[in-house]
Every structure is written in structure tokens, then in C-alpha cells.
């Protein structure tokens, strides 16, 4: 009897419709998060390793052991065109799990980036390669290849549960996870929110105040707000 998922590699995961993933990729993390009902965000300590990094794609998940990047090499075999790697760790670790050599390997497999609750290194090389990475830390400390983790099992990354095939979107505002079965619906909701915001943007440009756009005057008065001349 297995007591955990360590040593497991799931080779056949479901991915969402690529058309829905492409539609979702048009929207920013903040828009998607709000469109889903303000859920799905990873903790804000996960930051882009370099300015301008952004990504969107179905997750191939990796469960790492602290100080050990063995499972990245196992995961590379499971990557399909358009996927992103999403890596958690069995316990907190900021070691430099990932660098330019692994990025080269994953790029050859069609991988579109990495989100990791751990450290990365070779940041200048990653930027030159335009391989987007979002990480807990930048850390030159190396790792070993000695202890089994898992690939394509549910992982917790920066307090968010990520299942294989969920879509992860990341930009300068953060990282959000969209459940695989909701990608199309969330893309629709994001478009609706974007259209609504554009209508408001036009009014703001015309000088209309948020007080009036959002109908705030009545509630503010009811709350006791007073205007005085002196």
C-alpha cells in the first residue's frame, strides 16, 4: 500500500482546449482573478525572475524534494507543446533548482515557462532565452539529483492547489491558477469584465468621476459623509 504519491509519474493528463487557453492568454492576471470571483492567486512572493516575463499554459506539475532537482528531468519527458512546468516542494526551500540548462531542455520540448515555489539561477541567461520564470527566490545555490519526487500529481504552490492540466497565467501582477474544466468559462468572464472596464475607461477619460460611474454618492451620504466649505 502506498502512503504517498512520491515516485509517481502520471503520463496521460487531460489538457484544456488550446483555443480556450489562447483566449485566456489575452487577459492579465488581475482580470482573470477578478473574473473568477477573486480566487486562484498564488501568494505574491512568487515574482518574475526578470522584467517582462509572462506565461500562460496547461500545467505539468512537479513535486520536488528540498535541494534536489531530479524530477525536473523526469518532467521534461512529459511536456507537450504549450505546457508550463509548475513546481512545488515537499517543504520550503529556496535552493537554485532550475537554470539555463534545464530551460534549454524544456524549450526543445515546447515548454513555455516555469512557476516554482523555490529558487532559480542563471537569470541573465533565462532572460536572453526569453524563457519566462516565476519563482520564490533567485539563488545560485546548486542542487543534487538523489531523491524521488513526483510528476503530474496535485501540488501546493505558494498556498494554491495546482492540478495537472490546470492553466497557469503569470505576469508582473502575480500568478493565477484556472481549473482545467473552467478555462473556457473563465475566458468568457474575463472578456466580459474587460469590455466593462473599457466602457468605464472611456468615461474616466471624459472626466466623469468614479463617484458617479459607481453610484457612490448615495451610499457615502448614508454613511455620514459631509462636505463642508470651511
TrEMBL record:
Give the UniProt keywords, A-Z.
Answer: Lyase, Magnesium, Metal-binding
- Which cofactors, by name? Mg(2+); a divalent metal cation
Record GO terms (molecular function): 4-hydroxy-4-methyl-2-oxoglutarate aldolase activity; metal ion binding; oxaloacetate decarboxylase activity
Q: Where does substrate bind?
A: 99-102, 121
Q: What enzyme class is recorded for this protein?
A: lyase
Domain of life according to the entry: Bacteria
Task: Fetch the InterPro entries from UniProt.
Answer: LigK_PcmE, RraA/RraA-like, RraA/RraA-like_sf
Look up the signal peptide feature and give its range. none
What does the record give as EC number?
4.1.1.112, 4.1.3.17
The family assignment reads:
Belongs to the LigK/PcmE family.
Protein name in UniProt: Putative 4-hydroxy-4-methyl-2-oxoglutarate aldolase
Source organism: Arthrobacter wenxiniae
Matches recorded under SUPFAM superfamilies: RraA-like
Q: How does it assemble?
A: Homotrimer.
Q: Where does Mg(2+) bind?
A: 122
Summarize the protein's role.
Answer: Catalyzes the aldol cleavage of 4-hydroxy-4-methyl-2-oxoglutarate (HMG) into 2 molecules of pyruvate. Also contains a secondary oxaloacetate (OAA) decarboxylase activity due to the common pyruvate enolate transition state formed following C-C bond cleavage in the retro-aldol and decarboxylation reactions.
Under catalytic activity, the entry for this protein gives: 4-hydroxy-4-methyl-2-oxoglutarate = 2 pyruvate; oxaloacetate + H(+) = pyruvate + CO2
Q: What Pfam families does the record tag this protein with?
A: RraA-like (PF03737)
Q: Which GO terms describe its biological process?
A: carboxylic acid catabolic process; monocarboxylic acid metabolic process; phenol-containing compound catabolic process
Amino acid at each position: 500500500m502506498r502512503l504517498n504519491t512520491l515516485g509517481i509519474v502520471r503520463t496521460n493528463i487531460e489538457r484544456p482546449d488550446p483555443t480556450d487557453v489562447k483566449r485566456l492568454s489575452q487577459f492579465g492576471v488581475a482580470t482573470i482573478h477578478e473574473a473568477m470571483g477573486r480566487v486562484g492567486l498564488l501568494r505574491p512572493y512568487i515574482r518574475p525572475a526578470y522584467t517582462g516575463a509572462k506565461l500562460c499554459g496547461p500545467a505539468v506539475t512537479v513535486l520536488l524534494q528540498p535541494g534536489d532537482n531530479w524530477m525536473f528531468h523526469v518532467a521534461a519527458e512529459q511536456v507537450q507543446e504549450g505546457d508550463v512546468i509548475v513546481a512545488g516542494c515537499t517543504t520550503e526551500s529556496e535552493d537554485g533548482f532550475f537554470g539555463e540548462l534545464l530551460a534549454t531542455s524544456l524549450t526543445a520540448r515546447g515548454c513555455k515557462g516555469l512557476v516554482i515555489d523555490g529558487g532559480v539561477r542563471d537569470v541573465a541567461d533565462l532572460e536572453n532565452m526569453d524563457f519566462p520564470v516565476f519563482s520564490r527566490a533567485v539563488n545560485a545555490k546548486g542542487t543534487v539529483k538523489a531523491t524521488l519526487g513526483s510528476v503530474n500529481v496535485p501540488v501546493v504552490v505558494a498556498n494554491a492547489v495546482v492540478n495537472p492540466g490546470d492553466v497557469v497565467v503569470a505576469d508582473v501582477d502575480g500568478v493565477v491558477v484556472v481549473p482545467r474544466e473552467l478555462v473556457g468559462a473563465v475566458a468568457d468572464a474575463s472578456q466580459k469584465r474587460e469590455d466593462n472596464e473599457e466602457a468605464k475607461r472611456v468615461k474616466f477619460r471624459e472626466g466623469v468621476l468614479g463617484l458617479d460611474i459607481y453610484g457612490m454618492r448615495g451610499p457615502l451620504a448614508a454613511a455620514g459623509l459631509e462636505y463642508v466649505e470651511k
